[in-house]
Each structure stands twice: as structure tokens, then as C-alpha cells.
Amino acid sequence: MNDVVIRIDSLVREYRMGEELVQALRGVSLEIRRNEYVAIMGPSGSGKSTMMNMLGCLDTPNSGEYWLNGQEVSRMSDDALARVRNREIGFVFQTFNLLPRATALENVELPLVYAGLSGKVRRDRAKSALERVGLGNRMDHRPNEMSGGQRQRVAIARALVNEPSILLADEPTGNLDSATSTDVMRVFGLLHQQGQTIILVTHEADIAAHAERIVTLRDGRVASDVRPERTEAA
Amino acid sequence: MPFFEAVRMALTTLWTQKLKSFFSLIGVLIGVTFLIAVVSIVQGMNVYMEDEFANRLVGLNTFKLRRTPDINMGNITDETWREWARRPRIDYGDADWVMAKLKTPAIFARACDGGTNVVAGGRTASGVRVVAADPPIFTIRNYDLASGRPFSNHEARLGSLVGVIGFELAERLFPGVDPLGRSVTVGGLPYRIIGVVEKQGTLFGFSMDNFVITPFESPANRLTCRLGYMDELNVQTTSVDHLTSAVAEAEELMRIRRRLRPNQDNNFALETAEGALEGWRKISAVLFTALPGLVAISLVVGGIVIMNIMLMAVSERTREIGIRKALGAKRRDILAQFIIESATISTVGAAIGIGLGILLAYVIKATTPLPASVAPWSIGVGVFVGVFVGMIAGVYPASRASRLDPIQALRSE
Q1: Residue (of B337, B390, B306) closest to B9 by Cα position
Q2: What ipTM goes with this model?
Q3: Which H or E run contains A17?
Q4: Distance between terminal CA atoms of chain B?
């Protein structure tokens, strides 16, 4: 039981767009264990983004339950959700979403700021997180002084710095060329080996192929949930 | 959001967008500049009026018995002027009566006081105050002599042609020469100079060292006073505590002598330093009442400007807000961030305003006879006002920012 990080039970999310009622999620159930590397796939309109927002505690469902690390987050207040996002979730976005005026170090420190840690502790932890992704020599660079791959690594460092239960990556290679993509995916692979639970939301099959489990959504429902056979030698 | 983090961020934002920041600051800046400058001048005037003006013209424990007040501030109606013109002059009998009957220990000096030209050794000095007075005048006016001596009681009784002159007059008439023993011509008669009074300085740009003092009984008396009358009787009590009772006593004595009925107003004036200040106090009270209103107007405008700038900042930085929320910023973190930012902008404006205000006060002091002294409390008020206006102006934009939906905010460009 305590091995389960995420337990989702018949999650429903509806939006009203003008007159129309859009059902983005129509009862999704899912369980993700600690140290799993899961890819969530699906064509556009499949409810993938809604699923990502739901998993990231940026949104709450109309019905159903979402248990994250033993807490029921589906009924939480905004501030409680903010706290959960801060402690339990590390986001990696397609567009990096770094603060443009802040240095790499300051960007990585940001989640620790909201966790209420003191300046020195923050700096030390942010530094070691940046070193972990191989950017120990780029700490004082601003995002516009770095390549896309480096920016995404800063974002990964930021996602990891609070030691979250899950690393939630939304199309992390969408804005990168294939060489850098491989590079970033290698970082994910490494983190997975170190025991990090990773959820990868993507529509690219070859990116999803890095995961050990692939959940496919279609029309707001889980269409398939498979563990492709892989050669574990890599 | 730690406080200093937010302040530092606000300062960075200010610095990177200098022109925009300048415009956002200007309202508060002008308001605070104005506040500091006006308070400095009014405060400077207050100090000046009390320390210099009133005390030097009248003296702290001194009052004057006169026909009309010497120092007038504010408007005097025609009616008052006519009433003053009807008053009897102060005659020798009045002075003798008060001097004889006043129980409060005091010293007295009768005086006639007027302006005229004086001549010495071919040089003419115009607009010199000629004061014919009893010897205690030196004590009452607090005149110490730079050289020579005051006239003796003997000389006073005889009405000798001797004079004590002011520092500036000495320099004007006798440049580079010792004036003692030389003579100065006042009203056609030569007076032997027996003393020079120490430098007194200026008051509102007017020299206080441009005078001749002669014995009351000397002919100079008649330059301004009719025979048997005087301009004023100067009375100095032994201490400030006795002043009020002495004034009351003198008033009573004069009313008895003039046979005034209880329903009749005084037809003489008793002037104290306090009384002379009253007019100024009225002016300063008006200024201090009007000032908050004027400052408030510019601060309201300044606050609205800052609020608009902050609203702009919130919509420009929607994505940043989204990122912060995704990373765990609570509503109150975002709220605090923007309120602190707004307060910082405003406080920077206030700080510049304080600097400019002090500068302005000193420029005014240097270029005009108006005195100015920066009141420490006005700096405190300036800082407080800066913080306060910024916080108030930041509340609405910050609450808008804090209520943004993180998903929408992250999607914005």
C-alpha cells in the first residue's frame, strides 16, 4: 500500500465552453507505484493535458478521488494544493517556464523559497541540484544565456530540488532538437535509476518508449496500459 | 515569499525599466518633495521667528508699552488703523507712573526710535535707526559692546551729544578707522562716538547693525518724538516668570491712569515676544492645515499611477505568476510579493522625494532670506507615506494576481 504514490479512482473533469459541456476526463482510474517511469500518451483532445493538470494538482476533479502519497488532494483548498505542489511534485514543462530575469541558481531556489527555507540552505541545495544535472558551471547564467537543453536541465534541477514524490514532465522535449532531446531523456533515465518516480506526458512515441510503462488516453478514458518488453541492458 | 527577496526583486525590476519606473514614481516623488520642502520652510520660519525675530526685536522677558503695536502680521483693517490714530501718545507722565507703581521688579528704558540719514567725515549713511533711549536699553536689548563704553547715567541726565553705534554703521562710516572719539552728525548735530555694539547679524535680510543709540534726553529724541512724548517704554523683568504678571500689572496701571471704563478697550499696546509671534502662529497654523490636503492630492494621484503600473505588471507577468503558483506559491505569497513590490516602488519614490525636498529647502535657504530647517519628523512622515501609499495602491493589483488560475496563467504568453 505505501508503495503506491498515486491512486486515481474514476476521475471526471468537465469544462463548460460557452453552451457546450466538454468532458475532458470521463472516469479515469490509475495507480502508479514508487519508482515507476510512466509515460502518458494520447492524441490531442484525449484529455492528456487535463490529466497532467490533475496529476500536478493544478486542477481539481468534478468527481472521483485522487490520492497522492497518502493524501486525498481532490478536495483540497487552493493553498493546500499549493503546498502539495511545492512538496510532492516537480514540474518540467515543454516551454521550460524559467523566470527570465533570474539566474539559474535563483530559478532552482524558487521552490525552496516557497517551502520557507533559509537563504543558505536554499543556495546549498540549489547548487547540488544543478550539479546533479551537470550545470554546476552555469549557475549565474540567465535563461537567455543558455541553450534549450541547458534551460531544460535547469528546469529539471528546479523540479528535483524539493525532493518531490513525482517528477511530472509535460512534453519535456517538445522544444528541443533530437540531439538535445536524447540528452534530456538520458537525464530522466538516470534519475529513474536513482529511484525517482517519473511521469512523462507526451504524444511522441519514441519519447514515450523511454518509459517502462505506457498509459494511453483516448476520449478521456484509459485506452491501454502496457509495459513494453525492453532490454534492460541499456 | 521572504521580504528581502521581494524587495530585491522589485528594485531589480525598477532598475531594468528606468523610464517606466520614473513615471510610476513621479507622483509620490512630487508629493513627498513638496511635503519636506514646505515643512522645512515652515519649521525653519518657526525656529527663526521664535529664536531670532521676536526675541531679538522684543526680548524674552521684555515687554513694550506703546501707542500701537510695533510688529504686525496679517491684515490690519482700516478701522483698526483709524482707532490707532485716535489713541493718545505715551507721554513722560505715563512712563513715570508705570515706573513708579510697577511692583514686579524690572528695569525700564524710555525710547524714541526713528530712521534718518547720518553723516560722518563726508560719508552719508541712509536709513539708519536712531534710538534715543535710557541707559538700560543696552541690557534690555542684550547689546554687548565690541569696543568703547555705553553712556553713563550722568551723560544720560544731561542729554549729552554722545552715541553708541552699530557694527555695520561703524564699518560704513569709518572703514579701516577706529570710530571711537570721532563724531557722527545726526539731525545736524555732531555726536561723539563712545562705543560700538557687537555684530548682531541680519533678520530677513535686513541688517541689525545699522543704528545709533543716544541718550534719551539728547536732541536726537526730537527727530521722531514730539516734546514730552515717547515711542515706547521698554520694560524688562528680572526673569521670564515675572513677565506675565508684569504685563498684567502694567495694563491695569495704564487703564487706571487713562481712566478707562471696564467696557472700553485699551488705548495703548503692550507688546511681548509672545504677542509678536501670535500673527506668525496664525500663518503657520494655516499652512499646516492646508499642507496635508495638498500633499494628499499628489499622493492620491501618485497612488493611482502606481496602481496602474502594478496592474500592467500583473498582466505582463501572468506567466511568471503561473510558474510561481505551480512551484508552490500560495495566494498570500503572490499577494505579498506584489504589495511589497508596489510599496518598494513607492518608497523609492518617497526616498528620492525626501532627498529632493531637502535639497530644495537648502536651495531656498541659500537663495532667499527665508530660513529653512529640515524637520526630522517630516522625513519619517515621508517614508511612512511612501510605504503606505505603495501598499494601498498595491492591494488591488496584488489581489488580482493572487487569484489567477495557475493553468490559465501558465498558458499565457
Answers
A1: B337
A2: 0.93
A3: strand A4-17
A4: 24
